[in-house]
TrEMBL record:
It comes from the Bacteria. Residues 1-29 form the 4Fe-4S ferredoxin-type domain. Keywords: 3Fe-4S, Electron transport, Iron, Iron-sulfur, Metal-binding, Transport. Pfam families: Fer4_15. This is Ferredoxin. Its cofactor is [3Fe-4S] cluster. Ferredoxins are iron-sulfur proteins that transfer electrons in a wide variety of metabolic reactions. The keyword Cell wall biogenesis/degradation does not apply. GO terms for molecular function: 3 iron, 4 sulfur cluster binding; electron transfer activity; iron ion binding.
Length: 66
């Protein structure tokens, strides 16, 4: 899976970090960021829920070709 955060849309609501704290965090400015090494979601089943929880739809989760 591939996770993309549109930083132009992100408002720093933090819902992603609440839904999937093993994948998402907030940077020094309070905006969404991926934890190091978690660019593919790390198998966390809550990644899609985190994307759905984003109030501005700044997170896109897509499948990657194997």
């Amino acid at each position: 899976m591939h996770i993309d955060i549109d930083h132009a849309l992100c408002i720093g609501a933090g819902q992603c970090a609440l839904a999937a704290p093993s994948v998402f965090t907030q940077d020094d400015d309070g905006f969404s960021a991926l934890l190091p090494g978690r660019e593919n979601g790390g198998g966390d089943p809550m990644v899609r829920e985190a994307a759905r929880a984003c109030p501005v739809s700044a997170i896109t989760v897509s499948e990657t070709a194997s």
